[in-house]
Amino acid sequence: MSNVEIYTKDYCPYCKRAKAELEARGVRFAEIDVTHDAIRELEMVQRSGRHTVPQIFIDDYHVGGSDDLQEAARTGFLDRLLQRRRESAA
């Protein structure tokens, strides 16, 4: 199974949209709330190179933010990425 991580802030509508997309697909994920955690936010910036939330990772692959996730879902890339991760875990 894929290790999906999503860095969020509790007031962010884009974070809510990204989590809803993952939940609708039945994807389990670890949410890392950086609202009041500067150290975890710095970790997010170092991993992603971006300062905005959400930032989504599948295993160590950086999907990007909410718009990137929506585009990956629209094109089928998200399903392929999740499937490839499932197969490599088998």
Topology:
Blueprint: E1 4-8, H1 13-24, E2 30-33, H2 38-48, E3 55-58, E4 61-64, H3 66-75, H4 77-89
Parallel strand pairs: 1-2
Antiparallel strand pairs: 1-3, 3-4
Helix pairs in contact: 1-3
Unreliable spans are none
**Proportion of residues in helical segments:** 40-55%
Largest sheet: 4 strands, mixed
The CATH superfamily name is: Glutaredoxin
Provide the spatial order of strands within the biggest beta sheet: 2-1-3-4
CATH topology: Glutaredoxin
- Roughly how many Å apart are the termini? 8 Å
Task: Quote the average pLDDT.
Answer: 93
Strand-pairing-aware structural class: alpha+beta
Tell me the CATH architecture. 3-Layer(aba) Sandwich
Beta content comes to 15-25%
Shape: globular
CATH C-level class is Alpha Beta
Helices and strands, in N-to-C order? EHEHEEHH
Work out the count of structural domains.
Answer: 1
Count of helices? 4
What is the gyration radius calculated from CA atoms?
12 Å
| β-strand number | 4
